[in-house]
């Protein structure tokens, strides 16, 4: 399908937990997201990908009700209008991990995670009866229980990202939204976080929607991929149906090859630049030396 052509929307899986349709968002009177949609289902990971400025984060933030839409419909699995709920009611249904959160100062890990219970607290900040158990579960699920009493400002970037995620899990929602959660993390923590996201869907039945820049990461973790360009959804479906060389090359404006990793069976992508055929300098020197030695 050519970019800009009308997209036939894939049917959402049965029992989808959240459905956003007709999402149009404008900044200063200019539409930046056009009639976009997003369906999230229990036990499945949906990944939003696309070039910078394609509207991925804007769409996710609109679904999370942090960004005002010019037009949109947001429906939960029981038919509830998501925009009609109070902030407290909505936060019991949907949790969002935003990017670029500041490092908490003067708070322990447990303190940070306990903030995730705010939708359940009564007046005067009193914790709900299930709050302690929910926090303990969230600490355990994210592997930061042993850090519970440590100051959050002393954690590494990867550890702190897990703590923020634990706070989202403490909300005990059926839907979890994550905006570029692997940004600025070392490779190890990127892999561990993606594994955890996959576990949340597989083992806990959470409907996960996540924005990622890395196409290989998207292919590794996603059940479903939504590809955006210029604020429009141009493809929606399983990874092998969305991440095709032709579509990616046109969308990103650079030649992209797609292959299957023989060890994992996952899709792998490779952007081809002008110097992709340039040989390693050491290899060239070694080959030249061998030729000289055979002719002498």
From TrEMBL:
Membrane topology classification: Peripheral membrane protein
Keywords: ATP-binding, Cell membrane, Ion transport, Iron, Iron transport, Membrane, Nucleotide-binding, Transport
Cellular component per GO, a single term: plasma membrane
Pfam families: ABC_tran
Main location: membrane
Sequence ranges of Basic and acidic residues compositional bias: 287-296
Region (Disordered): 275-296
GO process terms (BP): iron ion transport
Occurrences of domain ABC transporter (ranges): 18-255
SMART domains named among the record's database cross-references: AAA
Compartmental location: Cell membrane
MF term (GO), any: ATP binding
Cross-referenced InterPro entries: AAA+_ATPase, ABC_transporter-like_ATP-bd, ABC_transporter-like_CS, P-loop_NTPase, Siderophore_ABC-ATPase
Bias type Basic residues, positions: 275-286
Gene3D superfamilies: P-loop containing nucleotide triphosphate hydrolases
Protein name as it appears in the record: ABC transporter ATP-binding protein
Annotated organism of origin: Streptomyces beijiangensis
Taxonomic lineage: Bacteria, Bacillati, Actinomycetota, Actinomycetes, Kitasatosporales
């Amino acid at each position: 399908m050519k970019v800009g052509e009308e997209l036939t929307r894939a049917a959402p899986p049965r029992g989808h937990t959240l459905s956003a349709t007709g999402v149009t968002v404008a900044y200063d009177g200019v539409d930046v997201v056009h009639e976009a949609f997003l369906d999230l289902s229990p036990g499945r990971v949906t990944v939003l990908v696309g070039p910078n400025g394609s509207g991925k984060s804007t769409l996710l933030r609109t679904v999370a009700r942090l960004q005002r839409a010019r037009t949109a419909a947001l429906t939960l699995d029981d038919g509830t209008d998501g925009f009609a709920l109070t902030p407290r009611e909505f936060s019991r249904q949907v949790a969002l991990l935003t990017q670029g959160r500041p490092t908490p100062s003067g708070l322990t890990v447990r303190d940070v995670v306990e903030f995730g219970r705010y939708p359940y607290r009564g007046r005067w900040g009193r914790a709900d009866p299930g709050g302690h158990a929910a926090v303990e579960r969230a600490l355990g699920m994210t592997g930061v229980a042993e850090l519970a009493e440590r100051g959050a400002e002393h954690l590494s970037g990867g550890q702190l990202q897990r703590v923020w995620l634990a706070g989202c899990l403490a909300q005990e929602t059926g839907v979890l939204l994550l905006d570029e959660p692997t940004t600025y993390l070392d490779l190890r923590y990127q892999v561990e976080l993606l594994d955890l996201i996959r576990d949340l869907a597989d083992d806990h039945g959470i409907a996960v929607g996540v924005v990622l820049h890395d196409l290989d990461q998207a292919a590794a973790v996603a059940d479903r991929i939504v590809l955006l360009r210029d604020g429009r959804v141009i493809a929606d479906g399983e990874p092998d149906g969305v991440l095709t060389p032709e579509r990616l090359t046109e969308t990103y404006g650079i030649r992209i090859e797609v292959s299957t990793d023989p060890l994992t069976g996952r899709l792998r992508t490779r952007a081809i630049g002008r110097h992709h055929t340039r040989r390693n300098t050491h290899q060239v020197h070694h080959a030249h030396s061998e030729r000289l030695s055979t002719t002498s």
